[in-house]
Design a protein that fits this description.
alpha/beta, Arc Repressor Mutant, subunit A, D-Maltodextrin-Binding Protein, domain 2, 3 domains, 7-stranded mixed sheet, two-stranded antiparallel ribbon, 9 helices, 11 strands, LysR substrate binding domain, WH_DNA-bd_sf, LysR_subst-bd, sequence-specific DNA binding, transcription
């Protein structure tokens, strides 16, 4: 199917009749009717029910309409991006990310993007739930697991080893010799027991019984900074400033797994200019982080 024919189809849908669409497109009605007929022949089904007062969509037309509207969106974005005059990127981009990543990575990223694209609006959806990109719940997802949906693509990723962190006050009160079982653990609440980090702690720490739990990562971090206990966290680079307030324990822990963060996007959105510019900025920060961890 040619985009020019899809534009004619959308015009008829929007105007409600062949005659009104022909006037809008500045085409003769016989020409428009012929072109629509050729599109219907190509598809193998009628797209419109012709009536005296206009047209209505058939079931085939209803099926075609969402894809045609997306094609119009892509065409509009492509026209803007290829314009000789510099276009100001605008609109909202929804980024889903775990709470710590949202706080220390996405917020500074949004600040940088705003300096270069002031009309771009960033909406951060912080949480550990995996949002559905196919349904438009987010445009970009920073998630801890690789996508399994064929319509989603992983555009970048970063890995980091695990380490145990605590406040300086907590470390000072530790004995000269201690084991994992002697530490006061801060962890996720019972509603999040399926998380990889919780499972790793249960495997490595005998009779694992955390001293403090929360379903909010930032609450856990506050408890750790206050000296209530220790946390198992990824060894991330200095671009995550809230971790600079904590210190790594010098202890052999045996945690073998690595923390991973994937940049995920839907195939049909990755080349939209406003999405592409955010993906480019994320990849640049990931590249910086990898150099700092090397």
């Amino acid at each position: 199917m040619k985009w020019d024919d899809i534009k004619l189809f959308l015009a008829v849908v929007e105007q409600g009749s062949l005659s009104a669409a022909a006037r809008e497109l500045k085409l003769g009605q016989p020409t428009l009717s012929r072109r629509i007929g050729e599109l219907e022949s190509l598809i193998g089904e009628a797209l419109f029910i012709r009536q005296t007062q206009g047209v209505t969509l058939t079931s085939a037309g209803e099926k075609l309409l969402p894809a045609a509207q997306r094609m119009a969106e892509w065409a509009n974005e492509a026209t803007q991006s290829l314009s000789k005059q510099k276009q100001q990127l605008s609109g909202k981009i929804k980024i889903a990310a775990p709470p710590g990543v949202a706080l220390d990575f996405v917020v500074p990223l949004a600040q940088t993007l705003q300096q270069h694209h002031p009309q771009l609006r960033i909406e951060v959806l912080a949480g550990i739930e995996t949002l559905n990109l196919s349904r438009g719940e987010a445009d970009i997802s920073l998630r801890t697991r690789a996508p399994t949906d064929d319509d989603l693509i992983c555009l970048d990723q970063i890995k980091a080893p695990m380490r145990i962190l605590a406040s300086s006050a907590y470390i000072k009160q530790l004995p000269d010799s201690y084991t994992l079982d002697d530490l006061d653990w801060i962890c996720w609440s019972d509603s999040h027991q399926e998380l990889q980090m919780v499972q790793e702690l249960k495997k490595q720490v005998k009779q694992f019984n955390p001293v403090f739990t929360s379903n909010d990562f930032n609450i856990q971090m506050a408890a750790c900074r206050a000296g209530l206990g220790v946390m198992l966290l990824a060894k991330v680079p200095p671009i995550f400033p809230h971790l600079n307030q904590l210190h790594e324990l010098n202890i052999a822990h045996g945690f073998s797994s690595e923390a991973e963060l994937f940049v995920v996007c839907h195939k049909r959105h990755r080349h939209l200019p406003k999405v592409a510019i955010v993906l480019e900025a994320i990849s640049a920060q990931f590249a910086l982080a990898r150099r700092q961890m090397a």
